[in-house]
Amino acid sequence: MSFLDYDFMQRALIAAVLTGLAAPAVGTYLVQRRLALMGDGLGHVALTGVAVGLLTGWAPVWTSVAVAVLGALAIDAVRAKGRASADVALAMLFYGGIAGGVLITGLAGSTAATLNTYLFGSITTVSSDDLWVVAVLAVVVIALGVGLAPQLFAVCQDEEFARVSGLPVRLYSMLIAVMAAVTVTVAMRTVGLLLVSALMVVPVATAQQLTRSFRTTFALAMALGVVPSLGGVVFSYYVDVAPGASIVVASLCGFVLAWPLGSLLRRRRNARSVNGEDPRVTGAHVPTEQHPHQHDDECGHPKVEHGDHSDYLHDGHLHAAHGRHYDEH
């Protein structure tokens, strides 16, 4: 009898696909903003939401969504202030989240085994109702991540110039935080709250070893999230180990395999570009594959005359318009 003949495995595989797509989709933006550990912190906060659900009898998925969203907005507000004590405030929020979760779980009379299903995942116990909730939330996150990719990328790449371009930076920043919170709750039944950050970050880090542009990194990361998710569930079925841990280990194995290949690809690219010399010094033609906005006299970037054209100083690089792309000088 094949594992596909079991209803719980069918639900587990569908949940794995949805999680494998949603987590890297949001993780790409978090990595771009250097907030790779935000998912880990939100996992701690969401634990309090799970405990509230156990105490009140409401569905833990929805209570954890509410608490995680509030935590994400608090984290984004602290980050936006940019004060030196921001990391201390975030640390207290994370510690308070996991401590509150354990405390309220005890008051609810639930056992440690119940809490472990959310901390480390229990994908094979996903019910039909759980699957519908996971599916709706995951589809919303993926649709926003794909549909608003140009705007979100611009905000993640350069907040100042996104603001100059007229984008509501604060709104998009809060949207990314809320998407991360929702993704944490989507993934808590598959990889668990303590491992969810790995599925948001590792596929993105693996894709970055092999790609250069944001668009290809985004697409490849989603594919690399699905493969280990499915493989981890099937592996756990045959070996009888925790699915969450299997998914994360499989994802890490992908990074280990991609790392030397990425190093080889980067050496080949460098060898092809002006014999390894810095193109900013030599002025050689090196096309950039991605750029968040169009340079002109009003864009605010310093303008540098370069032979018969003008370059614009951008994030340590000199960009020159060339047809439908930019050359990096």
From TrEMBL:
<protein>
    <submittedName>
        <fullName>Zinc transport system permease protein</fullName>
    </submittedName>
</protein>
<feature type="compositionally biased region" description="Basic and acidic residues">
    <location>
        <begin position="288"/>
        <end position="315"/>
    </location>
</feature>
<keyword id="KW-1133">Transmembrane helix</keyword>
<feature type="transmembrane region" description="Helical">
    <location>
        <begin position="193"/>
        <end position="211"/>
    </location>
</feature>
<keyword id="KW-0472">Membrane</keyword>
<feature type="transmembrane region" description="Helical">
    <location>
        <begin position="167"/>
        <end position="187"/>
    </location>
</feature>
<dbReference type="GO" id="GO:0055085">
    <property type="term" value="P:transmembrane transport"/>
</dbReference>
<keyword id="KW-0812">Transmembrane</keyword>
<dbReference type="Pfam" id="PF00950">
    <property type="entry name" value="ABC-3"/>
</dbReference>
<feature type="transmembrane region" description="Helical">
    <location>
        <begin position="218"/>
        <end position="239"/>
    </location>
</feature>
<dbReference type="GO" id="GO:0010043">
    <property type="term" value="P:response to zinc ion"/>
</dbReference>
<feature type="transmembrane region" description="Helical">
    <location>
        <begin position="245"/>
        <end position="265"/>
    </location>
</feature>
<feature type="transmembrane region" description="Helical">
    <location>
        <begin position="87"/>
        <end position="111"/>
    </location>
</feature>
<comment type="similarity">
    <text>Belongs to the ABC-3 integral membrane protein family.</text>
</comment>
<feature type="transmembrane region" description="Helical">
    <location>
        <begin position="131"/>
        <end position="155"/>
    </location>
</feature>
<feature type="region of interest" description="Disordered">
    <location>
        <begin position="272"/>
        <end position="315"/>
    </location>
</feature>
<keyword id="KW-0813">Transport</keyword>
<dbReference type="GO" id="GO:0043190">
    <property type="term" value="C:ATP-binding cassette (ABC) transporter complex"/>
</dbReference>
<feature type="transmembrane region" description="Helical">
    <location>
        <begin position="51"/>
        <end position="75"/>
    </location>
</feature>
<dbReference type="InterPro" id="IPR037294">
    <property type="entry name" value="ABC_BtuC-like"/>
</dbReference>
<dbReference type="InterPro" id="IPR001626">
    <property type="entry name" value="ABC_TroCD"/>
</dbReference>
<feature type="transmembrane region" description="Helical">
    <location>
        <begin position="12"/>
        <end position="31"/>
    </location>
</feature>
